[in-house]
Structure formats: C-alpha cells, structure tokens
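Chapter summary example: a protein plus flavin-adenine dinucleotide.
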Amino acid sequence: MQTVHHDFAEPSSLVEALALLADHGPGAITVAGGTDLLRNIRLGKIQPSLVISLARLDVLAGVRPAADGGLNVGPLTTMAALARSAHVLERAPALADAAGHMGSPQVRNRATIGGNLCNARPCADTAPPVIVHGATLELTRKDGMREVAAADFITNPGQTLIQADEILTAIRLPAPGGPAGSAFETLTNRKAVEITITSSTAWLRLDGGRVDQARICLGSVGPIPLVAPTGEALLQGAEPTAENLAAAATASVNDASPMDDFRGSADYRNHLVEVLTRRALTKALERAQGGAS
Ligand SMILES: Cc1cc2nc3c(=O)[nH]c(=O)nc-3n(C[C@H](O)[C@H](O)[C@H](O)COP(=O)(O)OP(=O)(O)OC[C@H]3O[C@@H](n4cnc5c(N)ncnc54)[C@H](O)[C@@H]3O)c2cc1C
C-alpha cells in the first residue's frame, strides 16, 4: 500500500461534475462506491490528481420503469438496491440474481452497477445480465451525450468505450417485446469475498411455444464477457425442451475461451459453462413461462 495525495471534489450537480472532469483533464477520475477505485489508488495502480465523487448526484441513483415497458437503471444504484428492487426482480431478474450474489453485504451496500461496468473486469458480474437484456448505455460529457450498446462497451480487460471526460449516466433496458425471462448462474470458491470462477447468463423470449429469441453471455471465460452465438443459434425458433436447452448449453462451450489460473483450469471452466448455461436457460424459461421479463 502507498501513501497517496490527490485533490478531492464532491459536486452537487451533474453539470458541475462534468465541468470538473473536462476542465481538469486526464488526471481527474470519478469515484462511485469506491470499492474498486480506492484499492487501485492505494496499490499505486492509478495516481489521479483529482478524485471526483459522484455520491451526491442522486439523479444518477435508482431504478425507474420506462413508459414503453423497459427499465432505466441509474449507474449509482448499489448492488443491494438492485437485488431487492421489485422492478428489477420483475423485468430483469438476471440482474437481480447477479447483484445479489456479488461480494459480501458490506460490498453490496457500497458497490454500484456503474462502477462494475466501467471497471470492466472479465468477472464483472452485472455486465452479462445487462448485455443479454440488450441494454444501451448513456455516456455524457460537458458538451454532449451519446449512446452505445452494452454488448460493445467493454473492449478489453479494464477498458471500455468511455472517454476520460465522460460519465456513464444511464443504463437502459428495452422492453422485452413478448413473454421473456432471464437468469444468472455462477460459481465462486468462497461466496463472501471471492470473484466469479465462471458465470452464465441467459435471456429467452417465447412466441407460441417456441423460442423467438435467445441470448447467452458468459463471464470469466475470456478477456471480456462473451456472448455465445453458437448456443443462441441452436435455440432460435426451436421448442424450449430440456434436450434443446441442454444442446445449446453444450454448444456454448465453443464460444468460451477460458484460461488456466489458480481459481480453476480451462477444462473445469468449460465444464462449468455447460452446467451453468443449462441451469440459466432452464430458469430463464421458467421465468418466461411464469410471466417475468
Ligand atoms: C471484497 C470485494 C468483493 C468483490 N466481489 C465482487 C464480485 O463478486 N463480483 C464483481 O463483479 N465485483 C466484485 N468486486 C468488485 C467491485 O466491488 C465492483 O466492481 C463494484 O461494482 C464497483 O463499483 P464501485 O461503485 O465501488 O466503483 P468505484 O470503485 O467507485 O469505481 C470503479 C471504476 O469505475 C469508474 N466509474 C464508477 N462510476 C462511474 C460512472 N458513473 N461513470 C464513469 N465512470 C465510473 C471509476 O472512475 C473507476 O474507474 C468486489 C470488490 C471487493 C472489494
């Protein structure tokens, strides 16, 4: 650990935060819950000259249903709030699953979804649910705003499309457009403090007894969260039988590219992809048939 010195600002409006970020230049960085950033500063991995807290920007916190049936999630929403949100449980249950599993109760009370996405680790647990729900992310800077697909946002471990002068200001999940369900399944070594060894997240939309659209995203088996087109394609237009779900889970292994590390071998992770994807698809189907989205 290092002794570090930097300036600190706690703006009370988004306009003020964006101006500080733009005017200070690349030495400035935002902090939300601080569960990743403060550790990285103490370890000397980053040495910002100005830390801008987003904590007072209440406008960026909370979950609001959109008029079209979608969901607007504020980036400052904590994992604890996501896990217990009735809107998230109803419309994006995979996101509630992931948020409720993450870290320890103390971490879940501080850690935000915006920090989890911007941190962009291969094991970032909220990224796969946001991706399978087809979310768009709103990025705002002092003089403008743009939207990017969540599926494109994380480009490399620790790297995203966000620029140094931008703040992630909204996560928008579209309406499902029919009966749909989602689920997140994971395996960790020690639940309270260990990061994910492998996760699989599934989203299914049904149409007249068939799968109208399937989305699968795998965590911790590649440099970034990986969508699984091989598994998805097998379900397109298929009947959601146990056999078809199992075949899609087996095929999804082709889309993973895990590494050996101290948490698990590549072979073990491939096995987990199959098991966890089958479970996630099965639970997503149950939820779709039960009316969740
Ligand atoms: C003990 C422990 C256990 C953990 N377990 C897990 C786990 O199981 N799964 C998991 O995925 N993670 C885990 N984490 C990692 C961490 O808690 C999460 O990544 C968390 O969601 C980060 O959110 P934060 O608000 O604390 O981010 P911060 O630390 O505040 O910020 C992280 C990064 O995101 C940027 N950022 C934050 N908000 C915004 C925004 N709105 N716009 C632009 N940039 C922004 C910051 O500048 C910084 O670079 C764990 C951490 C600890 C300490």
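Key point: Residues 29-37, 54, 75, 102-103, 107, 110-112, 114-116, 118-119, 123-125, 162, 167-168, 193, 195-196 surround flavin-adenine dinucleotide (CB under 6 Å).
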